[in-house]
Design a protein that fits this description.
Layout lengths: L5 E2 L11 E6 L3 H13 L2 E6 L2 H10 L5 E5 L10 H12 L5 E7 L3 H10 L3 E5 L1 E2 H24 L14 H19 L4 H8 L3 H10 L8
Parallel strand pairs: 1-7, 2-3, 2-4, 4-5, 5-6
Helix pairs in contact: 2-3, 5-6, 6-7, 7-8
């Protein structure tokens, strides 16, 4: 990754913090660029440069809502091994953070593999600052919905068979519920649903396939 992976855009600093984001990338310059983008939008930002330091931070900071993760890190910078290991370990820690994966434009298969392992979304490099901010907003939307459902005890409903699978299953249950509700509210309009959730249309189609949602279900 290089400094050209992100095209920074000026933005006004907000009045209050919007949430905590963990940046996991071995490129210090790139982390600094990302930090500047998120700092200016009111997010608290933590950093880690490898799998070990990322898991140390996650083990101490339960309030982290979103992780931005580069898949290729030492000692395997040319593979997705380290990034996928962070995703799996996050699930094993039962940490509620949503993970946004950074991937090259020719690495769609790697991104889909990361999503199958539990990542929430992915960004193709190079990504504009505004795209990064919108992705973080989307992730926090789902994260806060998860937290609200947990507070109301809703995540305990119909989860008897899933509880043994840990928090990943609970998160997916919450995501499915939110997607189904928005599709119902929009009369199964994919374009409107994507706009309401701040997602790309392709992401809605992914959720339709993932959760086996059909028009008659909504």
């Amino acid at each position: 990754m290089s400094d050209e992976d992100f095209k920074l855009m000026p933005c006004e600093p907000p009045a209050s913090a919007e949430g905590t984001v963990l940046l996991v990338d071995d490129d210090a310059a790139l982390r600094s660029a990302l930090r500047n983008v998120l700092d200016m939008r009111g997010y608290d930002v933590l950093e880690a440069d490898c799998r070990k330091s990322a898991l140390e931070v996650l083990g101490k900071k339960e309030h982290i809502g979103v992780i931005i993760l580069d898949l290729g890190m030492p000692p395997a910078v040319h593979s997705t091994e380290e990034g996928l290991a962070v995703i799996r370990a996050t699930s094993e820690l039962m940490h509620p953070a949503k993970i946004i994966v950074l991937t090259g434009q020719d690495e769609e298969q790697s991104a889909l593999e990361a999503i199958r392992e539990g990542a929430f979304d992915f960004l193709s490099k190079p990504a504009r600052a505004e795209d990064i901010v919108q992705a973080v907003k989307r992730a926090f939307l789902f994260h806060r919905n998860d937290q609200a459902m947990a507070a109301e005890g809703m995540t305990r409903l119909q989860l008897n068979a899933k509880v043994a699978d840990g928090l990943k299953a609970v998160r997916e249950e919450a995501e499915e519920k939110l997607v189904r509700q928005v599709l119902k509210d929009t009369g199964f309009n994919v374009y409107q649903s994507a706009a309401r959730l701040g997602l790309k249309r392709e992401s809605i189609y992914y959720f339709l396939k993932k959760f086996e949602i059909k028009r008659d279900d909504s």
